[in-house]
């Protein structure tokens, strides 16, 4: 199939590379030259395990290319996947301006096209957004009626950064929000290779499923953190408690996200929870559980800060800065928040993260660091030994690097282990320090 992917970010770059890997011809579209340029040279614009290789293969086989030219992309393809950002506004509501602009641009290109084009929204949008914003923008700009002159679907994305390619090939669920059958048929054809049977629901249901999914993950994390905090103070290993809970076959609970650890963060859970709570307020629906999930997350940050303060040490070595290992995504990283608090209270910090090295950051990420974290950028080092020499206490946010670090130090300096979840197990043998 001929496919265009709008937005070369954490979702779009992975989707485009994987679709090309599946044998489709893919045109990735982004107005940002720092995304288009590297991709055309076979370089991934983001840090994601395995993505460089897929992009190189895609460019090498000529099945993948990038452009900023919307018309070229829509004219040359049958179906467009829209993967542009939907960030939080300052009041917590969902900023749909990128989605609306992409719909306008694609609609204008459809106006000049003779064949039936399908527009598939993959960005996370609140229920009703397709109906109230995306469809009107497409119809206005194309001068055609949705379902007749072009097709539409909503297909929520569930990938997790750092395991995004594995998630693409082994998705937990595939949900299509139906508008017209022609577009659903195209999506079904594309997804024949997957083991999971796609589920076709209404567009509003599909929009709601995505928010429910992220709210559930956030709730599980906050719940596990709270149980972990109680267990820790009572001298019990909270990981074992939750492992045993998940082993109860009658409960049938997945272990995913149900591990004590640090606060959740990243570009999805906090912003999607905020948007859901904002939407609920507008509907006059109280959300005490979602409110508590956010409050519990804030508490986890406060506890981490208190743990550092309790050591009485001032020179801190922070290992890891992105919101989880194996990504360079700093958006709403709780480690950034912790570093800010420590920095603001005069702690002398050095930060090491293999994926956030100022000298190696490119384009969009460099801009992000410069505009959002100029003060922290001066504390980042590309030399983990500098952190080892500097620190009186270590704060671990990245387990892989922690292992390396642990072999470099064999003294009694305190270690505060904030590494969350699946890649982590607090082990007294390796981590003699303070664990959750
Ligand atoms: P991102 O910020 O990394 O990337 C968005 C990209 O869209 C940017 O490169 C931007 O330049 C580009 N863009 C903006 N306007 C455009 C336009 N008109 N045409 C083409 N490109 C345009 O965002 P992301 O993390 O990839 O997330 C995208 C969407 O997917 C969001 O709605 C997010 O909530 C959702 N999502 C993200 C994840 C994740 O793990 N990051 C997972 C599931 C769903």
UniProtKB/TrEMBL annotation:
Documented EC number(s): 1.1.1.22
Top-level taxon of origin: Bacteria
Q: What pathway is it annotated to?
A: Nucleotide-sugar biosynthesis; UDP-alpha-D-glucuronate biosynthesis; UDP-alpha-D-glucuronate from UDP-alpha-D-glucose: step 1/1
UniProt keyword Ribosomal protein, yes or no: no
- Keyword DNA repair in record: no
Occurrences of domain UDP-glucose/GDP-mannose dehydrogenase C-terminal (ranges): 317-418
Q: Which family does it belong to?
A: Belongs to the UDP-glucose/GDP-mannose dehydrogenase family.
Protein name as it appears in the record = UDP-glucose 6-dehydrogenase
Question: Which species is this record about?
Answer: Microvirga arsenatis
